[in-house]
């Protein structure tokens, strides 16, 4: 049975917050009440709503790269070029088994279709592990306007810890997706690293580029007034790389570095979307670009996505790589402890590319 609120017009913001955030119904629960109008907390500022109207007015497209091309130098060149000029690209024939991708998408639907009593076991106040978090929006206590998204965040510590604390309905599929993606991730990092004069992805560099991993299961339910809100607001990721699996619905948009236009990232069957994160932009001294992106809300379809955030270790110090500035190139970023950088990101609302200024000299 769909959850209900005592009010049908959602005039009381405290009641909406209690229902969505504190009781763990999320926006999925709100959507399933059959609401016809968006609660005020979700109405975005005018400038964000304006962007919703202009997102598809361009013929630009992010690159789609075939990783099975026998000319590996061409693949590496295409990936590095995309990382510099777009910060986003899609890969096909990437080596991650398609069944693994289908399984984790199905597991995402399974988790979000659980009764609220089951899902709310994983909200911050109830979760038995700080590494497992079911939540909604981005940072509800910091945001003036909430985002139309629910998520399950799974920070990987070990197989044993995941086996004990990750939800049963999705843990095996999420772990398999993470593990089966690692060969592709290492290949991408190897290509990107060699272009920065990093000779090999040794243990030290691997720890720096991919020392910690977080898998998120994202759910964007049908929205009564999609033009007034966002699924995810303008931001860039704090990762080294983000590996994104999206379903067939669409809605992810990227800001073009050359034109400033918002460019749709169309779902390409069997593809994975890759984007450069802030950590990689800092490590490359700005050569690779971490780019603003946002997700539209949808009035007709529920949408899911499953990103893997490939990050430095929390205690790692990130700054321009010695190999990058060895030839006298002037560093434009200072050294920062990665966990400090992430903390700064999460204590404020999504605000475009402002987080990276934290590390600027």
Largest sheet: 8 strands, mixed
Distance between the termini: 55 Å
Tell me the overall shape.
Answer: globular
**Spatial strand sequence of the major β-sheet:** 1-2-10-7-12-5-4-3
N-to-C series of helices and strands: HHHEHEHHEEHHHEEEEEEHEEEHEH
Mean of pLDDT: 86
Relative helix content:
25-40%
The secondary-structure class comes to alpha+beta
Strand content: 15-25%
User: Helical region count?
Assistant: 12
> What's the alpha carbon Rg, rounded to whole Å?
20 Å
Molecular structure report:
With 361 residues, the protein is α+β, with helices and mostly antiparallel strands. It is 32% helix and 19% strand. It has an eight-stranded mixed sheet with strand order 1-2-10-7-12-5-4-3. The protein has a four-stranded antiparallel sheet with strand order 6-11-8-9, with no helix packed on it. A two-stranded antiparallel sheet has the order 13-14. Helix 1 crosses helix 2 and helix 5 (98-112) packs across helix 8 (171-194). The longest helix has 24 residues, at 171-194. It is globular, with a radius of gyration of 20 Å. It starts with 12 loop residues before the first helix and ends in a 15-residue tail after the last helix. Mean pLDDT is 86; it is low at 4-8.
Task: Briefly summarize what is shown.
This protein is of the alpha+beta class.
Keywords summarizing the entry:
361 residues, four-stranded antiparallel sheet, 19% strand
């Amino acid at each position: 049975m769909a959850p209900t609120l005592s009010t049908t017009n959602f005039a009381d913001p405290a009641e909406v917050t209690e229902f969505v955030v504190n009781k763990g119904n999320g926006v999925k629960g709100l959507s399933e009440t059959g609401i016809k109008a968006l609660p005020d907390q979700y109405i975005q500022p005018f400038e964000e709503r304006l962007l919703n109207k202009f997102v598809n007015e361009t013929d630009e497209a992010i690159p789609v790269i075939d990783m099975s091309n026998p000319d590996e130098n061409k693949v590496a060149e295409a990936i590095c070029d995309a990382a510099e000029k777009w910060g986003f690209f899609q890969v096909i024939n990437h080596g991650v088994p398609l069944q693994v991708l289908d399984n984790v998408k199905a597991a995402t639907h399974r988790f979000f279709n659980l009764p609220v009593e089951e899902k709310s076991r994983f909200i911050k106040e109830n979760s038995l592990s700080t590494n497992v978090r079911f939540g909604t929006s981005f940072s509800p206590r910091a945001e003036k306007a909430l985002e139309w998204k629910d998520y399950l965040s799974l920070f990987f510590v070990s197989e044993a810890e995941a086996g004990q604390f990750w939800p049963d309905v999705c843990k095996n599929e999420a772990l398999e997706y993470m593990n089966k993606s690692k060969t592709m991730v290492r290949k991408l990092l190897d290509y990107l690293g060699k272009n920065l004069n990093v000779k090999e992805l040794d243990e030290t560099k691997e720890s720096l580029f991919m020392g910690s991993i977080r898998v998120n299961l994202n759910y964007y339910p049908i929205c009564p007034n999609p033009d007034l809100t966002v699924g995810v607001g303008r931001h860039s990721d704090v990762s080294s790389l983000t590996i994104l699996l999206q379903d067939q619905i669409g809605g992810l948009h990227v800001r073009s570095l050359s034109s400033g236009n918002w460019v749709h990232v169309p779902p390409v069957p069997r593809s994975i979307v890759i984007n450069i994160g802030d950590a990689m932009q800092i490590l490359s001294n700005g050569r690779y670009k971490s780019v603003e992106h946002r997700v539209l809300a949808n009035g007709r379809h529920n949408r899911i996505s499953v990103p893997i955030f490939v990050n430095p270790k929390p205690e790692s110090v990130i700054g321009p790589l010695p190999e990058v500035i060895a030839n006298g190139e002037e560093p434009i970023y200072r050294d920062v402890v990665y966990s400090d950088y992430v903390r700064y990101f999460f204590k404020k609302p999504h605000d475009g590319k402002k987080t990276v200024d934290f590390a600027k000299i």
